[in-house]
Amino acid sequence: MSSEPPTTLRTLSVEENSLRGTVLAVQANFYQVQLDGIGDASSESQGNLPQPQLLCTRRTRLKKIGQQVMVGDRVLVEEPDWEGGRGAIAQVFPRTTELSRPPVANASNILLVFALEEPSLDVYQLSRFLIKAESTGLDVSLCLNKRDLISADRLRWWEQRLQGWGYQPAFMSVYTGEGLAELRSVLSHQMTVVAGPSGVGKSSLINQLIPNLDLRVGEVSGKLGRGRHTTRHVELFELPDGGLLADTPGFNQPQMDSTPQELATYFPEARARLAQGNCQFSNCLHRDEPNCIVRGDWERYEHYRDFLEKAIAYEEQLNQQSDPDAALKLKTKGKSGRQYEPRLESKKYRRTARRTQLQQLEELYQETDL
Ligand SMILES: Nc1nc2c(ncn2[C@@H]2O[C@H](COP(=O)(O)OP(=O)(O)OP(=O)(O)O)[C@@H](O)[C@H]2O)c(=O)[nH]1
Ligand SMILES: [Zn+2]
């Protein structure tokens, strides 16, 4: 039994002189790759490796086939030069998820960070970020920072309110350390993209989670609260307990660009209603249609209606701009009224929509520098 190679990594490194790893950062044509299993004491053959990361280039044949390499990509590295800390990426493994802005592959979770105070929690803004996060298809975790600034009663009030939205927020304070341990366990062993508006404590949090990192913590200054970042690129940081965090530039309001039909599915409250039954019309937009099961007395229904109007306007704009034929999705009636024609192929439509949505976390990352 001892003749069995202990890991795939070992097999590859011995037999093919190649290794697997994760791309942590991209700069121009260079890729910082964190190799798997390095520093793992059980793997004695790795003991002589001088460093766990290699600065890699992309093999010419990858360039030829147009294979891009993104932060988060799982890659095969060949011909490591251990002394020089260099290597070459020979292969990119299929991605489980892909976001376009910031470009991050294989993230499984979005950690949405908001503050309870300073700046005070704006439910409409929170709703927008939540919808955007939900639209990526990744898991969404909601974390509310600065609990040191509110009373226990107020905290309970927020908890109940957000439970009504379908979320179980994690309350924490970077200042007092409350809630950090719970958060650490949520983040371990997966790749998480951190998102949230400016000034809520994202840098402070990341600094707490990853000692020695020392991201610059800004002051809440003015309405825009400009962030610490001067660069646009995204970078992955390793958590001490395993897991990776994608830090992101300061944000603005994410753009509302879901399709009208899919919007409701990004509200847990609406999802719960749709799980219990169907609206009379399969293309119901949950406004004034008869026998709609989504319309109702839930807090964010107002947000839903508001976002829906924006989604309709956005889709109309897209249809007009890019593809005049696609305008048949929308039928203009009279001067002001718009009406949707029945859409029969909703499955196909939804599948296409989902694909694009995966790339649309990007609006979360619009930089505050307008
Ligand atoms: N009271 C209190 N203040 C906090 C807490 N965490 C962070 N802060 C303060 O909030 C301010 C903003 O923190 P940052 O970490 O820069 O916030 P950010 O989300 O990274 O902001 P951007 O860089 O603009 O995206 C700083 O003055 C922090 O000291 C907390 O738990 N309680
Ligand atoms: Zn409905």
From TrEMBL:
Localization in the cell: Cytoplasm
Binding site for Zn(2+): C279, C284, H286, C292
CC cofactor: Zn(2+)
Domain of life: Bacteria
Function: One of several proteins that assist in the late maturation steps of the functional core of the 30S ribosomal subunit. Helps release RbfA from mature subunits. May play a role in the assembly of ribosomal proteins into the subunit. Circularly permuted GTPase that catalyzes slow GTP hydrolysis, GTPase activity is stimulated by the 30S ribosomal subunit.
Family from the record: Belongs to the TRAFAC class YlqF/YawG GTPase family. RsgA subfamily.
Subunit relationships: Monomer. Associates with 30S ribosomal subunit, binds 16S rRNA.
Protein name: Small ribosomal subunit biogenesis GTPase RsgA
Species this protein is from: Geitlerinema calcuttense NRMC-F 0142
Gene assigned in the entry: rsgA
